[in-house]
Structure prediction request, 1878 residues.
Amino acid sequence: MASIPWQERPAGCTDLVWRYEQNPIIPRDLLPTTNSIFNSAALRFGDGFAGVFRCDDRRREMRLHAGFSANGFDWRIDPEPIEWTLGDEGLEAPEYGYDPRVVWIDDRFWVTWCNGFHGPTIGLGYTHDFRQFTMVENALLPYNRNGVLFPRKIGGRFMMLSRPSDRGHTPFGDIFLSQSEDMFHWGRHRFVMKPEQPWESTKIGAGPIPIETSEGWLLIYHGVLTSCSGYVYHWGACLLDLDEPWKVIARGKTYLMSPQRLYEQVGDVPNVVFPCAALEEDGRLAIYYGGADTVTCLAFAYRDELVEWLRRT
Amino acid sequence: MASIPWQERPAGCTDLVWRYEQNPIIPRDLLPTTNSIFNSAALRFGDGFAGVFRCDDRRREMRLHAGFSANGFDWRIDPEPIEWTLGDEGLEAPEYGYDPRVVWIDDRFWVTWCNGFHGPTIGLGYTHDFRQFTMVENALLPYNRNGVLFPRKIGGRFMMLSRPSDRGHTPFGDIFLSQSEDMFHWGRHRFVMKPEQPWESTKIGAGPIPIETSEGWLLIYHGVLTSCSGYVYHWGACLLDLDEPWKVIARGKTYLMSPQRLYEQVGDVPNVVFPCAALEEDGRLAIYYGGADTVTCLAFAYRDELVEWLRRT
Amino acid sequence: MASIPWQERPAGCTDLVWRYEQNPIIPRDLLPTTNSIFNSAALRFGDGFAGVFRCDDRRREMRLHAGFSANGFDWRIDPEPIEWTLGDEGLEAPEYGYDPRVVWIDDRFWVTWCNGFHGPTIGLGYTHDFRQFTMVENALLPYNRNGVLFPRKIGGRFMMLSRPSDRGHTPFGDIFLSQSEDMFHWGRHRFVMKPEQPWESTKIGAGPIPIETSEGWLLIYHGVLTSCSGYVYHWGACLLDLDEPWKVIARGKTYLMSPQRLYEQVGDVPNVVFPCAALEEDGRLAIYYGGADTVTCLAFAYRDELVEWLRRT
Amino acid sequence: MASIPWQERPAGCTDLVWRYEQNPIIPRDLLPTTNSIFNSAALRFGDGFAGVFRCDDRRREMRLHAGFSANGFDWRIDPEPIEWTLGDEGLEAPEYGYDPRVVWIDDRFWVTWCNGFHGPTIGLGYTHDFRQFTMVENALLPYNRNGVLFPRKIGGRFMMLSRPSDRGHTPFGDIFLSQSEDMFHWGRHRFVMKPEQPWESTKIGAGPIPIETSEGWLLIYHGVLTSCSGYVYHWGACLLDLDEPWKVIARGKTYLMSPQRLYEQVGDVPNVVFPCAALEEDGRLAIYYGGADTVTCLAFAYRDELVEWLRRT
Amino acid sequence: MASIPWQERPAGCTDLVWRYEQNPIIPRDLLPTTNSIFNSAALRFGDGFAGVFRCDDRRREMRLHAGFSANGFDWRIDPEPIEWTLGDEGLEAPEYGYDPRVVWIDDRFWVTWCNGFHGPTIGLGYTHDFRQFTMVENALLPYNRNGVLFPRKIGGRFMMLSRPSDRGHTPFGDIFLSQSEDMFHWGRHRFVMKPEQPWESTKIGAGPIPIETSEGWLLIYHGVLTSCSGYVYHWGACLLDLDEPWKVIARGKTYLMSPQRLYEQVGDVPNVVFPCAALEEDGRLAIYYGGADTVTCLAFAYRDELVEWLRRT
Amino acid sequence: MASIPWQERPAGCTDLVWRYEQNPIIPRDLLPTTNSIFNSAALRFGDGFAGVFRCDDRRREMRLHAGFSANGFDWRIDPEPIEWTLGDEGLEAPEYGYDPRVVWIDDRFWVTWCNGFHGPTIGLGYTHDFRQFTMVENALLPYNRNGVLFPRKIGGRFMMLSRPSDRGHTPFGDIFLSQSEDMFHWGRHRFVMKPEQPWESTKIGAGPIPIETSEGWLLIYHGVLTSCSGYVYHWGACLLDLDEPWKVIARGKTYLMSPQRLYEQVGDVPNVVFPCAALEEDGRLAIYYGGADTVTCLAFAYRDELVEWLRRT
Prediction:
């Protein structure tokens, strides 16, 4: 089995999170039909890695594509968008799809994404092989974005984070948690947290699948500040209770990353860093994130350093 | 058992729906503490009638009160708001409550309302006697309004209509349907309908509990038009499929009622008629609706005339 | 030939314009299908009077209907909307029509109105008998409203006033003049005037067909002020140069009428008085105007008093 | 010396504040040139009463007029607006003036109002006789409204309440206090209070001159709620510390008055009650307030009942 | 006669349109007084090329300048703005001018531009030598932008595309066509097309003068998408019917160019590519476009490849 | 005493203002805790230079830090924010602070900044040594920004420029002047100027401390234009009357600097140049300005060239 992509912290760097030096790892035009490839989810698969990628085409339609990699750095992306088999009577095919997350639970890979269903909501589906994909019921009513599953049942229930939204470039957003016994019906909704710091003052949303640690669920999430030229996306982290994950145990006051490289500051949407996936191996973390809504990037961190930093705040 | 409130169609009137001549039946200051009483739900209870009433107090806080009546016209309203027993660990007490609907299903009265839970969503609770009220999980995530249950399970599932919203005076709104096997977890969301006619061009929302007829579920719903002085609320009707109630069989093109009386045109919010409950007896309908977000009113209709009118369109 | 409708100035009244005491002359539900009848144009026809009426139906669709009257007070309105014969290849039938004006020029009655053509613009058509109506080219590009023709050619050209707009409840608006030799092609656009006084500070628009006087064209026009509860419509007057009617000779500083009666203050759009037609006979004026976007009203004035008042300002 | 206007509480009424039965006391067209007369300040003067009145003329210009009354009910208003003598080099004459307050301090009557000075701010002037008026420096920078002086120096300083605003129909507003030793230079600004209850959730502003009681300064103030048809104005009360009047001792949770009469609900701005002056005599209060931004009204209360009510909250 | 500027498609490039490698061809400060030079029109003139250039000066005033070139790459721009001779009585000089297009018809060069005339509209003028310029009547009423003439009469009439607008950064926009027999009066307005794809979902507008081909008029046009940081401008193409050019025969689903180079992504308005002129020679096209509202750029294409691509969609 | 930082005008450059070639002089992460360092004030202190710096930390909190330099180019910034001693009873500690200006008057360094006090207003404090800082009364009521003191009393009074604002990204803004005899109470407010040119059409605000010249006070100020992607900040200059500094003697029509370098065009807020301080020595000016709300930069000019340029306009 391949090791996760990794590059050591540069000498002299004291940041908790550091960027891959060859960023971006996926250029906007890896496929001849793409306008941009970003905000995508990768994880271990077989001997290597697989993922679901947000590929905006040259109509600027937002589509999901499957992709594969031997080392997690270099990716081959299917030229055709995922075709969802509708697994349930009465389902409507997605009008569009973006910002996917993928997680293995029990016996299959579950995919959540922002699904076009008379407005944005949380689409839900699964795959065994990243070739055949089956879509089930939308998890939640419109208007919602950033649906993120926990990687196992907690107290006998599936758990999902999400951000209720409106239909446009929503100027607000708190994180909630919903619970389910069957992946089809969701309830027992709990409020998790709302913006507190300036860097996240407009809205927040869950990022990669939460990472289980002895201290709690490590959640990396994005936070948005509104400048007089539009939104600025950063990301930070918090710890959620292991058994009642709607309870915030610790939360970082500062961001972990903000747009500071040209590939994060310049692109289709300037000033965006947006994480969608995190791989872990021996306490090392590889975090996939989108840059400027245009390209796909990698950053690295040590899990225990993040947890320790959160516990100290 | 008392008959439902009723007044025959006035001579010369050809409208499908006509107003009670002594409207409003509940003045804004029936209680010494109320600013207004409107958008309320009534139904049969014991020998007479009971209901849940939206009473805005003189802080303009929105509260739900229980009320009782022998004849459906004259109401006695509890001076204190409903105190919800929280029936589930982790529940938060409502920040506010408004626009309730009530329905008997199986063994108890279920109440839905617009519940303040970090933003508006659909609160859910039950009562056996309109004295003790138990709140269970919010049915849906924020931000949502106008949650309306069907009066029985369909295909083995509870069914609820609702309107996803934003956090303010939402300028859009379609009706969706959600399903549940246990009243706690909701899923299998279906799109029902969106605004089509000018009188409803801004948003629509379900009104009273749907009425079962041989032709389908008779749904009275409100529709909003935006004038250059704000929103104007009307109401109309449609027929939904008996077994798959997210399918619209027939839908009226015109409104059934628009604000045309002084008590509907003048008040805390001018130009509002907003129906929340409908009683049926021998094909006669008594419809409770709010006037100008200030008072409670009654209107009457014949069920079969409405169904016939819908089938012709 | 019938005299124009008239009622003398009430004793003690010193206003330049006074209302008909039996206002409104047309109730909102004169037809069983109408929600409201207002902002309509009347003029002499045969022995009596005819007109084009804005009738919003109970879908709240905006439609134009023809109507007839023997005395100008009591009106019979066709139950069916005007069906336009398309007089030109390539024309599209109106999506909707509202706020008509009608004028006799040379050999026929010309009708202008706010026409739905991928947005609002100035529809143009004619009739000889108020039975058959022919639509010709839209006079102007979208987005425009309040197109008003002069009652004769000036300097060999037809002349039309209009207000360029946006597509919604436009928050701005000046009056311009356009010229044509053939009623089909319009150009030589001239700026006429913009809001100056507080009562008209949001936007202004031409009202009835201008009235020729020895001192200039007497133009009655509406002006809109934005309150914290929406738009308030008033009307005032000005004098335009007889030969170069884009030049304003005199303009009243105060409004002539503001919404002060219940039928102007309460209705589908509170606080609207909107004039669309003026009849003249022996220096007496009968002015038709809409009240609260709901009903049709009459007001009266003496032409020479208005002109004298304008010349003094 | 005349008694203040008074009418006893109607039998059966339990409200703390009750309306004058012959409201409105000043109609909109008391002067032939006025569109409306409202939001005005009255106080004792000589044997009777004098005041400064907001008179919007028929251009909808906002002007201040002086007025006189023998009994406080029946008013004679100067047909001409106040002409301000500019008492200071460099002053600009008001572009407009509205919502005045008047108070006797030491040796003269001081007037504050919303003054047009490149945007709205607090104009300041004085008179000895309500014939000659002298304007001094604007008390504060734009953009500000609702400047209200205390009726005496406190701790050797003049004190003024105000509400910082923006330039339009400001959607926010807290009350602040500023201090001065000379009426020309203001500083030592203190925050007083912000909206707390739903009826005042959009903004609040000081009303009449504060009334000194043994328990503190009794301040009547207005509070605004935003409905989907615009702003709704109510008024309530609080107690401020006698020596440090930026400290709130007690504050009513409910409004004392909301728009519930036709002359408050219908007019140029529907749903407004706006108090600007309060007279006191032997513990009885006569409160002048504007209705619907159109007419002037009176309400009554007992001072000690209000204070007692505030102390209980 | 000089050949049009041209650079072959780079090896390995499969795009239909490719950029000039030395872009930008005109820097922002070619003149000492300019802030930026962009969105400009060039065409053959004499032995070489001439054009009308949008030069924003360092007041950020938008001005038109004439310019000349021997090879189409290297330009000399007049340091003074064009001075328009007013060719018609009653004309007003432009308040400002921007985004010009130029075309030879019959006997002269016609210039259209966005002209400041109490708001933006389509200015019209002509020149024989790019030294003397004569302005005639504005072609259309305000508010309009992107007026583009066809290069010859069609069916005996001049034809112009335009986009009706509002007065600011208009958030909507469809393309219309207007017709004229004399260049002074315009009518027979036709709807052409509206936004369909995501990349153009906010608004569209005609770009260079349409290019006649055997398959129809080849129209390059810009399309705008609204991101959470503002507008993003792309360009695409369509084919219009040769004889009835308001009929769309074929239309590309994807954009042909989006902002992907630093000189398109960074500048006074990030993320803009805006084409205003296209030269053709032997089936090769040289397209002049603005980058980031700051500089002038060149791109190339083969006419028949574009037509073939459009026919296939 | 050290000379001010200086670099001669590059050969061939004809601009009145030129940039330092090694810009930016302070990177965004000079401190390990900073997100950005910009919009800061520097001046002579002892043998070298001191200043107050806007340092946004990685929570994106806006804080003020002191800093020191031997040569004006290379800065050492205190890692901890300034801790204000509250010099007056009743003062509240700043919620945040940004965009400082510093000036020596009489016997101490006075600091003004945008202070968080229930919204933004002008904070005021002083220091003798840039180690101990004392805060006094806020100079003005909220909502205000860009408070700039003159470097000496004029006519016996302290003078301050400021820009009244609202609470967000204010879309308007004129410059006013306020006067004081004691630095505590401010009055005699004068209107100074409003936006006139396109580059400043949204709002303007004073920049560095005004520089006294024989011709008047030289004021460098920023001006903002709203593009379809947000605000663009430029700076220009004007001359104010020496004795009555609210009178504008001369004002440049063009900007002196606009964002044209990557470090001004790309960063947390693209397209910002924002000057806060200017040092003078023998007619040479060193101007400190912020770039892209991210870094600190230097530009240079000759005082007399600026004055001469202003006098010619």
Q: What stands out?
A: The two ends of chain B are 37 Å apart (CA to CA). DSSP finds two helices and 22 strands in chain B. Chain B touches chain D at residues 28, 32-33, 35, 57-62, 169, 229-231, 266-271, 293 (CB under 8 Å). Chain B has a mean pLDDT of 96.
